Amino acid sequence: MEGLRRPVRDQLNPQQILAVTTHHASAWDLDGDRWVRALGPYPAEVGAQGIGIAREGLSRTPAGTWPLTEAFGIAPNPGTRLPYRQVTTSDWWVSDVHSPRYNTHYRGAAGPFDETAGENLGAAGPAYTHAVVIDYNRSPVVPGAGSAFFLHVATGGPTAGCVALALDDLLAVLRWLDPAREPVIALTARPSAC
User: Fold this and answer.
1) CB < 8 Å & 24+ apart, contacts of 147-153
2) What is the CATH number of the domain that holds 41?
3) Is 1 inside any structural domain?
4) Counting beta carbons within 10 angstroms of the beta carbon of residue 68, is it exposed (0 to 12), middle (13 to 18) or buried (19 or more)?
C-alpha cells in the first residue's frame, strides 16, 4: 500500500485503513494523497475458513472494506477514541436470524431472542478483553448474511470469522484509531504489501 495514491471515487472516505490478509495486518494513514504505514505488520488470525463470502454458520471472515465505528471490552477503555462500551454478562451480540435485533448489541438480563444464537460478550473470556466492531452487515442488516464480526484479542488459532491480533498489537491499533479519520478495515484473501 505504501506510496499508493488515493482512489478517485470512494463510497467511504477513510483516512485510516487497517489492511488485513489471511496472516498479517498493517495500519495505514492517508498523508496528502499517499498512504503511509502507521503500524505493523502484525501477525493476524482470521476465520478458520479464510476470508471470502460470509454468512451465518460459516467460520469465514467477510471480504471487503468495512467501517470501524465502535469498540467494547470486558476491561475498561484502554485509550481508544472510538465510542467504547465496557461489557458485562448482561451484554449480548444477537445472531438469531429471526430476531429484529439480528447483528446488533443488546443489553439485558434475558434477551428477546434465542440466546443460543447469540454471544454473551461479558462471558466470552480473554478474546473480548478489548474488541472493535467490524461494520459488516450492519446497514442494512440482512438476516443470515453473517453477524458478530469483531477485531479482538488472539487466543491461539483461527477464529469463527473475526480478526484477531495479539493483545499488545490490538492495543496499539485501538489507540491509533480516530473516528474523525473514518477508519476502515480492508479484508482480502490475497497477499498484499502489508
Assistant:
1) 147/56, 147/93, 147/94, 147/95, 147/102, 147/103, 148/93, 148/95, 148/103, 148/119, 149/54, 149/61, 149/62, 149/66, 151/18, 151/68, 151/185, 152/127, 152/128, 153/126, 153/127, 153/128, 153/129
2) 2.40.440
3) no
4) buried
What tens digit of pLDDT does each residue of 97-144 get?
A: 999 999 999 999 777 899 999 999 999 999 999 999 999 999 999 999
In a domain, residue 173? The reply is yes
pLDDT digits (tens, 9 = 90+) for 43-74: 999 999 999 999 999 999 999 999 999 999 99
Distance CA 102, CA 53 (A): 18
Domain total of the chain: 1
Note down the domain range covering 116. Answer: 16-187
User: Distance between CA atoms of 174 and 188, rounded to whole angstroms?
Assistant: 21
Would residue 172 count as lying in a domain? Answer: yes
Cα separations in angstroms, 66 against 27, 69, 184? 14, 9, 5
